[in-house]
Amino acid sequence: MNPVEIACDESGSEGENLVGGETDVFAHAGIRLTPEAAEACVREIRARIGSPAEEYKANHLLRAKHRPILEWLLDPGGPLAGHGHVHLTGKTFFAVRAAVVLLAENGTDAMARTLHRAGPAAFGADRWAYFLAAFTSVVRLNPRRGVTTSAAEFFALAGELARTPGEAGEILGLLRDGGERVAAYRARLAADPGLVPVLDPLVPAVIHTVRHWSADGTPVALVHDEQLALTAERVLQLKVVLGHRLAGVRFVDSRSDARVQVADFLAGVARRIASDELNGRGDTRLTGLLESFVDGDGLGG
Hints:
The protein is built from 13 helices and five strands.
């Protein structure tokens, strides 16, 4: 069976900086359009916006004066209907899930969702944020500048929070003895350049994208915007995980492929719409239009 080409781009990528970064949502979009259809879509957007910019980005579409163009792009009768898909990752939830999976002996997604929802109220928003920042510090080989929490300090904090009554405290109790698992993970990360860091949402998003587009058994060949995090070693890991579903990965400059430009539009607007929704600024109309492009709940419920 011949593979189908899916053009991809992302928005909100900050590597392992999940807490305290510039963005709180990571979006990865996949587009199934012919080059001709994508070029027609880009031409139409340029004509409707009328800006002299050489390269259009999602922020052009997100301006209030261009709202009709954004709605046209996402509309069920628009150019992307049935041809686009977005995987959304809430960065805070991703960090919580990484903590639960890595530190607990039998951590589950359900536990992570419970902790994500209950943590801020149970421990206090500031203390909860500090706990997550400390976790991301101790599992990274190269901690962010200014974050100096040691493993001993982190697990002492986890033990303290575990004494908090309620479900959140109970789950923290399962994480406080994960020191050996952290040490083993860091050793594997240092030894294997192909190992995907537990804090980087890009590779899991790519896996989700490939599985979505190959659900009918058709293998997928990705045409992806240039992305330094997708190293040769990690592409090999993707092929191991996905098997026949992934026929290959080819990197291009987004300016040379209209399909990737359209994926950039979709990823960028999806990230902003989802972030606004998470922060109580949601736009009911835009959120509703985006729903047809999104499956699953990577935002944490």
